[in-house]
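S.,

Sequence below, as promised.
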Amino acid sequence: MRRNVVIQATSFGSLGTGSTRAWAYGTHGAGENPTTESRLNALEKNIGSIHERINQGRAETDKELADLCSTIRSESSTRQSEDTSIRAQLESTGTGGVHISAIGAAWLFFGVILSTAGVEIAKLIG
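The prediction came back faster than expected:
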C-alpha cells in the first residue's frame, strides 16, 4: 500500500505582524495493482483522515476565535476605562476651577473698591 504525502504552507500577514503555518498530511494509496477491496480500504482510511483534519481545523479555528474575542473584550474594557478617565479629566478641567474663579472674582471686586478708595484715603491722611 502506497502512502502519498501532501504538504501545505500558508502565510498570514497584516500591518507589521505575520504568521506562517505549515500542514502535512498523508493519504493512503491502494497499492501497485489495486483490487476493489484495497481501493475501498484506502478510501475509508482517507475519509477518516479527512474528518480528523476537519475536526482539527475546526478546533484550531474555535480556539483562535475564542482568543480573539477575549482580546477584543479586554481592549473594549480598557478603552471604556480610559474614556471614563479622560471624561473625568475634561470635566475637572472645565468645571474644576470654579472655586478658583470665584476667589478671583472676589479679589477683583475688592480690588475695584480699593482702587477708588486710594483717593479717599489720601484725602483723610493729607
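Residues 107 and 113 are 10 Å apart (CA to CA).

Coffee later?
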